[in-house]
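anyone else get weird line breaks when pasting these?? whatever heres mine. first is seq + tokens for prot A
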Amino acid sequence: MEHLCGDKLPFWDSNLTLHKHVPDLPECFQMSILPWAPCIYLWVTSPFYILYLKRNNKGYIMMSILNRIKTVLGLVLWIVCWTDLFSAFHELNEGHPKPPIYFITPLIVGMTMLLATFLIQFERLKGVQSSGVLFIFWTITVLCAIVPFRSKIILSNQENGVEDKLRFTTFYIYFGLTLLELILSCFNEKPPLFSNVVTDPNVCPETTAGFLSRMTFWWFTSMAIKGYKSPLENKDLWSLNKQDSSEVVVPSLLKEWEIEKSKALSEQRVKDQATFTKPGTGADTNHVGGNPEEAEVLLSKRKESQQPSFLRALLRAFGPYFLIGSAYKLLQDLITFVNPQFLRMLIGYTKQTDAPTWWGYALAFLMFGTSLLQTLILHQHFQYCFVTGMRLRSAIVGAIYRKALIITNEAKRSSTVGEVVNLMSVDAQTFMDLTTFLNMLWSAPLQIILALFFLWKNLGPSVLAGVAVMVLLIPFNAFIAMKTRTYQVEQMKYKDERIKLMNEILNGIKVLKLYAWEVSFKEKILQIRKKELNVLRKTAYLSALSTMAWTSAPFMVALTTFAVYVTVDKNNILDAEKAFVSLSLFNILRFPLNMLPQVISSIVQASVSLKRIKDFLSHDELDPESVDRKNNTSEYAVTVVNGKFAWAKQDQPTLENINVMVPQGSLLAVVGHVGCGKTSLVSALLGEMEKLDGQISIRGSVAYVPQQAWIQNATLRDNILFGKPYVEQRYRCVLEACSLTPDLEVLPGGDLTEIGEKGINLSGGQRQRVSLARALYSESDVYLLDDPLSAVDAHVAKHIFDNVVGPEGMLKGKTRILVTHGISFLPQVDNILVIVDGRVSEMGSYQDLLKQNGAFAEFLRNYSLEDIIEDDEMTLSVVDEEEEFPEDALSNHIDMVDNEPAVNEARRQFMRQISIMSNDVENPKNKSIRHRRCSVKKLAEPQVEKKEQKGEKLIQAETTETGRVKLKVYWEYAKAVGPLLSVFICFLYGCQSAAAIGANFWLSEWTNDEHNNQTQENVQMRVGVYAALGISQGALILGNCLLCRAYSMLKAAHATHRDMLHAILRAPQAFFEATPSGRILNRFSKDVDTIDSALPNNIDIWMRTFWYTVNVLIVCSVLTPMFLIVVVPLMLFYWWVQRFYVATSRQLKRLESVSRSPIYSHFSETITGTSVIRAYGRNDAFVLLSDMKVDENQKSYYPGIVSNRWLGVRIEFIGNCIVLFAALFAVIGKDKLNPGLVGLSVSYALQVTMSLNWMVRMTSDLESNIVAVERVKEYSETQTEAPWTVSETMPPSDWPPIGNVQFVDYSVRYREGLDLVLRNISLKVKGGEKIGIVGRTGAGKSSMTLCLFRLLEAAEGDIVIDEVKISEIGLHDLRSKLTIIPQEPVLFSGTLRMNLDPFGKYSDDEVWNALELSHLKKFVSNQTAKLNLECSEGGENLSVGQRQLVCLARALLRKTRILILDEATAAVDLETDDLIQSTIRTQFEDCTVFTIAHRLNTIMDYTRVLVLDKGKIAEFDTPTNLIGQKGIFFGMAKDAGLV
């Protein structure tokens, strides 16, 4: 430096700078280091920056005035700098040579200004609206220029004034211009041309925010204010940034995953060739040929290598972005260690009496500056991590959804809907949580190493004692983490089990109620739950231990270190500087040490999740090539050659040697007994089954009508269009052909009525016809119709056959394959295929098969041929009759409850209904009831419907919008925990932190011993008391954790779940119709999970941080009372920021959880309809829909993350101010304070930032999580149905002895405010009579049966069974004495035995007997497991007919006096139907039987027939008399061809 500046200008002079009360820097330093610093910065960063800009081109920005001014100023600065340079040359010429520095500095600075000007333009061309690099450059430049600015003024005030006038002037011009540049760089440019900012109406302001705004998250403030003024709504949310949306994120992950999979495959192939030379068959690419044992061995050998790594795919897709965040983290870690050094200087400064005061102030402001920098950097790091997490979640959910659409049936069997939804909700979430902490994996060790390095400098080798303690803790925690992991897996297993069972209970709730089985299932769930809570309890013990270990760790380390330090050497004196600097370093250590186990357990959880997700994504996919769609050569539309199919690779083949040829445009009927493989054949044609052998080809597009209609939760019209464009004419024809027109008149919104999930507000027949209409509208080439006619009435079936399927229907000329049980249509089909036990027994036209006299002829002979012939003649007459009975002929008789109020209301005018709605809006008391009535029944006009739904969400939002409700919820939770316990727990937390304060005060006393020179005498006492205080703190923590986690909070978790379960099972049927099952499941999975594990965590951390913060404020205020002046405004600001934040963040959480359940309900809906979606080739549309729902969810999640950052920056600013003032007041009062207390107050203040931040985050987490308690509470308080048992009126055990049923002036309505469905019905039925109930749709047939079970409660009148009024006894007493065979057979997963007899009341013999009578004995005894045959979810592994027979077996077992059949035989072929009817006749001979009939021939021999019309009894007499009366019944019989 001497060389550059010459001898006259010294580079450094400490007398001039450090030890002067008015310091100044030497001129050489001012000319070299200060101007060079910003230049070095810019030249180092710009190459990287330019490269980055080349990569990320955002478009091009028009030249603006701002840009022009910046560029001109840059050029002027260059000229100013070079003026100095030329003046130096000029002086050289004049003969006054200057030192080299006068040439070098202006040259360097001038070049840098040119570079800056170039960057300004380059950024404009690349679309950067606000530049961080340049902003930092101008800031450094201005800061460095402030010193010369001051020096030059001081100089000019001295006697001799300014010598170098030119340089004096140019410097001030330079300073002014750089200041201007700095101010201008705070403003933004316009957005680039053609960017989405211009096109998007609700763009996120982040895209256009400036650098400063981004660093401090200022751009979010607008939303915070909006959210504070009024609750945020969906429309207030900004649209998602393009790079976070599913359309960008998911493909990038899938691309990487595909690469991984193909890599694994190719490795496997190489291995295969090495190990296994025997050639496999061509079809079997993913199957090892040869004998199974050999294959097993090979598989196990190969397992390790062949697995594709999902982790690598994730890293490659999201790693680079994440690394930017990691870079920020590294910076922040390094800056963390600056403050303890400043603290050391500060304590040193307070010891010196003669030090200049500016030292103290400088140190205080330096501490403030570094803290501020640390804050900004930390939150940038968090932002990057959270956004990565968010993208991860989008990508994983997208990948799982796409996979779920194409997995094989076998794979579907291994992952139930519940499990997959868990993958999407819980496991994707685990990843999201992990990304926030992932950097701690390397950052924690780094921080520990740095801290130890500084500690070593401070205390020497004694630190090793402390390190030893830490090292000892590591295996202890590793052990805990391992155990926790195993418990986690176990808990997951129970949770999956519980949700799966819950899902089934919700799906079959009607059956549970009808059979009075709730108790049995409640017990099952509570058993699983008990196991789950036991695992949670074990986890809680572990977490208590680990919490204690980690909270006491810093203290134990400090204790051992100090103790060793003082005892090792007599000369070692623990003074304030050593003690408190060490303490603040130990405090820094505390965070990484605390986080490490958390991170490790997070990683453990994530690895479990990773494996689950990877396993799911590695499932086999359906082979798209198994059905050849390209074959256009043959004249056959569908051909199957030597087909052999199974549902899973290792199963027995369900269908073998199938040969089918279906000519173009013909109609093929497939017939056969229940369970012979008709549906399997259709599935095979769709490519849903594993093709073990043979070829299938189909020409052209396919339309598919499944046996059980799959209906989306959308409008009726959308269900039919299914993504095809709307063509009025064609659409009307389709409706007409499927006889849906009359139904539309009945539905409140016509074809725009919203259908509830699973088509809940349509009757079975309507669903089936909608499904048929969908196929018809799709105008495909090949139609696969799986028994669409079974669920509708005879005459509707006829209408559909004639107008749609038959030779004259809309589909003539198309290829149709029709599975059917209806014989009457067989003469009109081109070909008939008869299937027996999975083989084609014969095929040919109707006449051919009759001549062959084989199985088919036998089958027909059982049913009188006259029927059929007569049926043919009838066709003509029916057409004439339709005029007389237009409504009847086109309607259908199967109806579910749901649909009748609609019909009746429609029969009145609509105005009344609308007026009801408007009244309700005015009268808020009824609002909730009103909402129940409309929301899922969806019976209002479509416009009103929309409002209703929104209203519902708004109502939800308002309940927790005010702070007041919150306290009530906390109180609920405290009550569940136990009020006294809660207070005691809070008290313990207080004690724990008091012990901590005590220990630190004691330390500060100890350090003052050196002043009083009594260090040695007291060592024993000092160490002893310090230890005692610390250990008591540890003990308190342990006790508290055990009390809190393992006892009280689990008690609360148990109680809340039990109450909710009980309330849900007690809720009336109407509740389930009004609440989608997804919503209830969400409460049982997500919310219960929150109460189980998230809440206790939150409360624990919150309590600790709260007390810690209180401590800091107390300590600082006691030591420097002036501090109190600052505390008040700071706390006000804190409170104010928090209020803004909490209002906004809570509402965002709320919107987020509201938009989350559609993802899952759409997903479970998709899974049930995959075969339909695939058949119509609508995969991509559904994927798009799912992506949209995920994006919609992320739209509210993203502002939620940012709100945390926004808050963090502001709160930590408060913390930094506390540091500043603690230091300032320490400097001001340094004469009164001893160094120990200064150390104490500042080292505490340094910690407060962390705890303030944690506290608000925990407060908000707590607020959003406590909502779970409220949501669970809400469902525990649903209104219940009548009590299950009433002890006073309990009927005798043999009731009803005879089975007389009497309706006395009975009327019923569905809900308050709706019309009566049955009016003043009075009738008597004697024990043992058989009553058939018929009537048009909506006449109230099903309602009558539901009244018997009291699923509907009477409006007036009574039903009396054997002298007992059913309204007076308990529901279970009533329902257990009646038996119903419902319309839709519902089975639960579990053994067949459990399905028949959940309470285990009957012996095995009785069960077998029932099976024999219901014709299932042969099927069951052929199974290896016999009665323990596992039924899969919803009984999927039995055919619909078999399920119906299981329901019959249930009825036979219960054998009660009164039996109700709700058209139980719709899904069975005629032969089985006959068997069932005869079983019922013989077995229930002395019982009273009510049958809701579709096929009139089943009730022609009943004692009496009841004809209902519009809720009244129209006719009631014996069948023969009724036919004689020529009334309604006669008309129906005529239609059915029985007269």
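and prot B, same format (seq, then tokens)
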Amino acid sequence: MVWTTTSQAQRKIGIAVCRFRKGDIAQAIDLNPCDTVVIEEQCPGWYKGYLLDDRAVSGIFPSEYVHVRKIDRSITATEDQVNNHLYSRIRPCEGLSFEDELIVCELTETLREWFKAIKELYINSPQDTMLAYIQKEIVKLLELRTSFTAPYLTSTLRTQLRTEITNKIDWGNKKLGLDVVPRVNGMRVGPKSISPIELHKIHLDTNSFTTGNMTLTAVRDTYNSHHLYLHFKTLSPPLNPPSGDGDLAIYFSIYNYNAGSPEFVSERVMCKQYRNGTQGSQAGQSFTAMFVDLTTADLNLEDAYLIAQVYKVGSLKNARADNGVIAYKRPYGCAVLPLRDVLHSKHPKPYDEEGFTKDFSMSLLPIRNNKDDDFSNITDHLIRKVKERKIDDKEIGAVNVALGMLHGEISSIRHKNPQLFTRSTIITQKLGFADVIAPERCAHYVLLEHETRNDFYVNLFEAEFERGAKRADRNIEAKILVVDDTGKELPCIAGDASDAPTSHYESAVFYHSNHPRWNEVVKIGLTEHQFHSCHLRIEFRHCSNNAPEKKLFAFSYIPLEDRYGTTVQDRMHRLCVYKPTKYESNSGMKGAAPHYLSLAFDSDSPGTKSMSNSQCTISQKESLFVRTTLCSTKLTQDANLVSFFKWKDDIANLDRVLLNVQRVKGDELMRHHTDFLNTLFQMTCDIEACYHQPRIFEALIHILKFSKEKNYQQFLPIIELYIERSFCAPLVHRELLTQIQRVLDGQDNQRELFKNVIAVFDLLFKFIIRSAYLHADKREDAEHGLLCMSMENFWKALQKLVKSTDKDGSKLTIITRVVDVFPELLKLLPPDSLASSFSETIRVIPKRNSDFGVHKLKCLSKLINSPLFDHEDSRHIVLDLCNSQILFCLQNQTDLKLVAENLSDLLAAIYKNRDTMKTEMELVVTWLIKPLATTILEGSESVRLLIGCLITMLSMMDEALFTKVLEHEKDTLVIKKLCSDLITIMSNIILEAQIPSDWIVLLILFNSVLLSTTKLLSQTMIDYFLSGSNFNELVWKNYFMLCVTFINQPCLQLETFSESKRMTLFSWYGDMRVKMGHILFDMWQELDSFGDYLTVFIPSMVGPFLQVALVPQSELRMTIIPVFYGMLMLDFEKVQGEIVDKLDELYIDGSGDLSFKTAFLQRIMESASSDSSGRKEQLTESVNSISLLIDLLYDYRCELNATSSEQGDTLRLSTLNLLDFYQNKIQRSQLYTKYVYKLRDLNSKHGFHTEAAFTLLLKASTLEWTDQHLVRDMSCPAQKEWERKEQYYLDIISYFDKGRCWEHAIPLCKELSAFYENQVYDFVKLQNLLSRQAGLLRKIVPGDAAASRLPSNYYRIAFYGQAFPRFLQNKSFIIKMNAFAGRDAVVSELNRSYPNAKVLPDPIKTPNPDQLTSNQQYYQVVKVEPDAGPSKLFSGALRPVDHRITSFYLWNNVTRFTYDQAFHSPTHDKENEHRTLHKLRYVMTTERPLPNILHWCEIINTEQRTLMPLEVALENMSKKNSSLREMLVGYQSDKQMDQKELSMSLKGTIDAQVNGGIPMYQNAFYSPEYAAAHPEHADLLNDFKQCVRQHVSILNDGLTLFKEIGQNELRPLINALCDEFKKLLSKVKETDSGCEVASLRSVGSGSFLSVSDSSRVSSGYSSSDVESVTPNRKSASISHQSGSFDEEGGAHSSSTLRKTRQDDHLTRSSRSTFYAKLPIVTNQPASPVKESRASSDEEDDILVSPVLPVKKRSLSTSSVQYAAPPASPSFDLVNRPLPATPTAQGQNAITRSSTYHGKTSLKPSTTAVYNVPRSPNQQRTTRQVHRPALPTPPDETDVSTARIKKRQPPPPPQSQISSTINEDERPELPARTVASTPTSEDNPPILPRKTFKPKK
């Protein structure tokens, strides 16, 4: 297989089309759908490459799983356009331009970033409302992407979509905290194609846009026009006329229900429902309509409704309308829907016919019982019900429609959504104009006459008629006609928007109603000329099914224009009703000349017209009400406007006409602006109106003023379009200039006129320039001279105005208006002349008021952006003017906001043409950079924009320009100040985060400028701040700190960004950190070459340089690290200490990684290899220490940031490692104290108060009781040493109290009491402290048994595998848990901390080497038992010690722990398993005693021992004796206890039916065969026999006690037990003739004698013996419930163990002492015990008396001395005397027999090896202890006497079998070969001590 490599230019982009999993292919990578891959190599069937989002994921993948995208190699664009991104060269689809491709690629990249962002958002805040919103926006973007890539889109629609896409992207990026994308005209811009200040402004604009919410209201308010889309669906339920044969006509319209005057808002549109079920405007077509041009006020009305008026079309009665019968339109019902329901509905898919609409049901209420008069009330009634929400669905039906809102111009919507505008879609106009007419529509009104609108709407409201001689009311139909003066009917009436114009309109017929209320709207469309000669006639006819024709009985009329030429007013008219002649009643009025025009038409204002004539008479009691509405751009209803248009008819009153026309409303004027302006300019040029020029000018100002107002601002481009295309008055410029000069001179003293002239000054000059331009072709030199003279007079008048302006400077605003017309003035005047005139005008403005300066700056802002700055002839004049004004403001600190804006505009203009404007650039920089820097340092509200200006200046500065800037400043001090200011400003820009972090493009651009400026300043620093007396430490330090802060900016840490973002940033300027690092190193070396200046910066610069070295960039590290070698050579101690301190600070803050350690070691050792100063060894040691510190700090940081354990165990362990390092490796007291406090807080936080106390004790032990003053630290204020130690002690006592370790707190109380009593004599504190100490003592021996302490549990935990933290790998620990924490709790905690870890099946055996070196996680958990060892703490007690006192020392301050495993060897003897039962005992030693500063500690040594069957039996029997003895003591002290436990224990022991009891032991070990086979076990056998005898005696006492306290119902059980005991006793005596029954009863008191447990501990037995009798120590499994011994070595079920533990707690709390064993009476003589000392030849003989039931005490003649704790214990946790520690046998060790006792599992006896404790300055010695033979036992009569004597118990029996092996060399069990040791007479057997322990 041959791989073909592709070059960088030929690489392909692939998109994964389906999922691929690599499986067993190691070189492959996983692919998910839509992953983008870069293909680097290929071969048949395979590609090789990497993921575009993550370059680290690289490998091979099948070619069939990816789709290779086309890449256009012909694209040639700037680097900023494509952002050097691979996406920008992908052709997403065909037919797109390069800019559109970039938009699609940006959209794709944005969607990927959003997916990552919402995934993180979901993980952190799944309930965040932003999550759902962003998901919706993603769906919308996907839909927009699909629409945008469609090939058939027009350019206008594509531009709109591009804007919508970019707006959504920017808004979403802001909400998700992603980078802001700067744009110009919707396209992304980069840092190399635009100036810094322009980029800064773009970011500001983008930020202001994206901070809002994209709500429906916001979108709706951005448009001036809104449109309602209607789609009629069905009637629900289907409603038909009662006859079932007629059709339904449904008229939809928008209705404003105002209680005062309800009216229609729109035209009506009809949908017909045919009797065959079809519907639509035409048969077979669906009905859709669009209500257009609704205003924002219409949408916000609470009373806006969509109504549907339903009529039935048929006969008057319930007969068919066919067969020649006339079809009438009769009322049927009405439906309404509030428009607010439509506006507030959420449309999921805008601009889509299927998705953007929403279904609605209009409540439909039909009339009842053919009462047509109710039709007029149905609408009102239904609207009230809808408002009150009292609609009863059972009484009404529904009109089902689909509605949707569209916003914007109807032409744009039509282009965007052609599917909505089909042939069947009916456009329905509004009854009136929109609030603001859009410019493009108005342009049509101006240029295209056929686009003008002349719509006249008539609302036929209601009528009132008399019945007359009729018996019933009439069936009245109204017929509307438009008739001219000749009587001709014009076809111009439309009944609804869907109807074609006809000659008449027939209304609905109200059956038998003389008061019909039609409320129908018709539209009349006439030209403007037809309105003068036409009128509206309404004819009333009576309809009947019997009569074939309708009979005319009355009529009304209304003219469309009055005699003054104004159209009829928009209002409700009450028309007169006339009776026609008889002839007209029969034949109608068609074709006849109107004879009624001389009569009055309006009954409210009849005027001078008569009310009747010869042909018709008026009906006084009848009337008709109609409402008229005019919507026209040519016709007017204002008489003043009509008079204005006809001004020549009344030339004498022209002034009055011009004054009256200024009273016309603005909307009326703007609709007729073309005619109005034409008329004005006609007056201006007319000689007859020459005396009225001021009034004409005022009228012109009046209409132009409206175009500047908010409501008419859309007309401004229309006025400008008029000037360009329609204006044709070449002579008006002279008169306009004259009038302007008159106003400026103030001749008329009209302040309001002056303000209006200023407001429209730009439009006036556009008229002037356009007029002069039109006159240019005809002008002569004289004419040109007149124009120049007029302009000169204008400038003089303007200068006079600004020189004598008022105090507030309001008149100065005219200057800014002059600048607006510069583009037009340049068409007539040369640029230099215009610039000079304007400059002179600006300079004459006085400086006495700050408001004048504001106007100046505003004017300069426009001047910079004017065409004058583009012309070379005028640019220097403008630049000089700007520089002087800006410099003045900067020096005086005034108007800084405007100064910043002006300067930014100036710099942006120069930056665009920096290649051709080098002179201007040099002029601006040299004059303004120094005052600008000073202003920035002083601070202002516009400092951010000023910083952008300074950065822009620096970006244009090269070395030559920088040199000129320095040369411009002659004074050296000024140069130094400038450089110092620049360094300070650049540092502040970085440190104070002047630029938001999400403005990444601007940040990168600013940093590139800072980098280049820093490089320019480097030589200046050498020239002005280094040599001789010029050296300035502060400036150099600021320079170095600038470099350091620059390198450590988050925006430059490329490795933290995604692959695509990293590639883009790197392509712009590379890795700027490396470049700045080289500058930093070069300047440091330069400083070194000029003298001994480096020592000034040591050690202050160690930390900053270390920050740079910790940046994860290899080249940067290799550049900076050698600096530390030079520092170490200068001052080793200081630099080393500072490195340690800063490493601790920086690593904890998140800087640095492990690779820094390798780089540091490599570079320092490379430099040291050539060193000849003899410090190589010192350097090596220091570097190694620092390397170790880096490892520890890295581990600590990882645990601090990523620990998942609720207890934080690994975090505390890593803290302890650092604590040890700072105490022992490198002495850093401050850091040591810091981590003491941290460890204390961690322990206290997680509830380990005892450990917190020990931790704080570390610090307290270093203090003394002196008056020395101590400085403040992290936890304590500045105070004296004794005060701080006192504070520590009180805190420690509190911690010990919380941790229930009161024994450790009492010595502190004593020491503190002595200090109060003897040194400070503060008896008040002493009193309180002694009370507190007494409280601690009461807690040790509480009166309430339930308050007693429970023993702790200890577990061994081992971690294997390389996936664990390095300080845990392949190590084992002992962990202390509370009494209720079982193994399951420990395992659960480990699973939480390490969810991928696996539990090894073997709990103790070391795993195989593969598991140790694998990248997996394995652990072991097993419970172990503490072995406190022998102690003489209570050896001098004169009375028995309470077990609550002694038991504390059994599970505290322990370093030795054991674990037992039972097995059978060689095979399992099922008949008697005691013969083959062995135990393998593991003895583990920890590094520190527990508890300590941590609740767990590492195991430093593990030993292994094997216990033989006889040893196991002896241990089990001893445990059973102790258990029974303690139980009997409990019953003796409280005879009212429940006797169930006593009876079960005695029965289970005496009558052992499961394991056979004592007979099974006798069968196993008492036979001669066993003695012959195991002669070495003779001593053990004797011990076992004595233990059995003791057991029999205990049973005897138990039965005696049971007889005394037993209840009557238990007598049969007691008798049976006595019989069984006799049998047992006889069996025992058969094999042991020396067995006698002895009683534990006291002769005098009848109670059991007690002895302290500490005496037993000091008697020479191992700690296992003591542990076995301690409550809650479950090592042996003795089942009391079953009545048998369980000696299999395994544990009981968990329920049994829990019950046993709870019972033990209750039993233990009810007793007060431990008790001694029964004395054993034997026939053997006593023999001495010899103890050999390995280090000397001395031998001492020790005579050991037999064990008697008396108080035990160590003999003074014993040569074996153990280190007892002092009276006031030392709290040096490192050097304090430790308890006996197991060591390897034979090296300074004492070998003792250890018998281990427990309650839950069988623990084997082992040969325990103990180190003899010694003082810190004394070596330990080793002694071999030889046990003497037991003396002859006394007679039974001497037992009571012997109990009174105090004897030292002999040492325990020495185990005959012992082996010591390493942990990794454990043998495979049970195939272990055990060596035997022969017995000796010098080592006679002796019974181990036992205690009673009652147990349920």
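btw re prot B: Residues 1578-1605 form the longest helix (28 residues). The radius of gyration is 54 Å.
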